[in-house]
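Side project, low priority. Logging it here so it doesn't get lost.
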Amino acid sequence: MGQACFPNRQLKVSKNKMKPFFVRFRFCSFSGVSSAVLVIAVILAFWGCSKQADYDSLIAQGRAILDQEDPQTAKKAQDLFGQAIRQEPQKAAGYYWHGMAAGRLFQWADAVEDFSSAIERDPALADAYFRRALCLTVLNHADKAPILRDLAKTLELDPDHTLARRQLALMQRAR
């Protein structure tokens, strides 16, 4: 191989203003993939990196606003998390934090949906199970089995989750 990847054409190349010579460039491929495809792949990779940076930036901005613990600013955080979800709908973090903002706004049913969406995307997200169980408790969910299951799953994934352990003990005593 060793040939440069450019369309077939003659280019005049001079080295240190010495005797000019011609180099023939050919359209070449790497393992059957043309250079045009490689260029497109590189462009998409860079676009993906900036998209990831935007997603991470939206999550970070929303979390900073949510950390202020002001119900007035929770709506702004929720909007930022919504933008992150629209940008990367397959990622769990956007849904998790959107659910946290919904809880701050006392939108318990919306928070349950968000935590459920986060769990669908990342079943190992222990705190999403715990937060969903809390929201179901606040909603006074008639069937306590899903709450107990979520608390048990939280402890299965994170045995050191003290709040889940306490909530599960309270729920079992109340039965």
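Brief comment: The domain at 53-174 is CATH 1.25.40.10 (Serine Threonine Protein Phosphatase 5, Tetratricopeptide repeat).
Revisit when time allows.
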